[in-house]
Design a protein that fits this description.
Blueprint (H helix, E strand, L loop, with lengths): L1 H23 L9 E12 L2 E16 L2 E6 L13 E7 L9 E6 L2 E3 L2 E5 L12 E4 L4 E10 L2 E11 L1
Antiparallel strand pairs: 1-2, 1-10, 2-3, 3-4, 4-5, 5-8, 6-7, 7-9, 8-9, 9-10
């Protein structure tokens, strides 16, 4: 009988420790996953800024803190057209623009034409956040820098979850 009680105690304590870890590390992807439609602002060189309406991306969950950004209808002149990006999610800092949500930090991707990296979208943020998702509004915003042959190009996606 003591052996059964010991086994049950071990199983219960293992379950309890896993449950408490889960509470400390919540799934940040719960509300952000889905399809977004919005405006893509392209800054292809120093003299050319262009807004492209009705652009779509899909956010796909990878794990509790990582998502994949997949362009669905990006214009051909966008260096990020057809490039899938991975973003690390972190909770929005307390008091940040009075918004609860998540911050996105986009991983660098290397592709045949150059590199793509996230760039900070606001001078008011601490750290290396390249975007944000607002739970209350369903809005997503992120910025990218692509470097092709040593020349930097910038993009800003601002969309609404569909």
């Amino acid at each position: 009988m003591n052996r059964i009680a010991l086994i049950l105690l071990i199983v219960f304590s293992s379950w309890l420790s896993l449950s408490s870890c889960r509470e400390d590390n919540p799934d940040l992807t719960t509300n952000i996953v889905g399809i977004y439609e919005g405006i893509l602002t392209l800054n292809l060189d120093t003299d050319s800024i262009r807004d492209v309406n009705n652009q779509q991306i899909e956010i796909i969950r990878e794990d509790d803190t990582h998502v994949r950004i997949v362009p669905l209808t990006y214009p051909d002149e966008s260096p990020a057209d057809s490039i899938q990006l991975t973003a690390f999610l972190s909770p929005t800092p307390q008091g940040f623009i009075n918004t609860r949500g998540v911050m996105l930090t986009i991983s660098q991707e290397i592709y045949d034409r150059g590199t793509i990296v996230g760039v900070p979208f606001s001078v008011n943020i601490q750290g290396d956040e390249h975007g944000k998702y607002e739970r209350e509004t369903g809005k997503l915003l992120y910025t990218l820098e692509t470097v092709i042959d040593g020349v930097a190009h910038y993009e800003l996606f601002e969309g609404q979850r569909q």
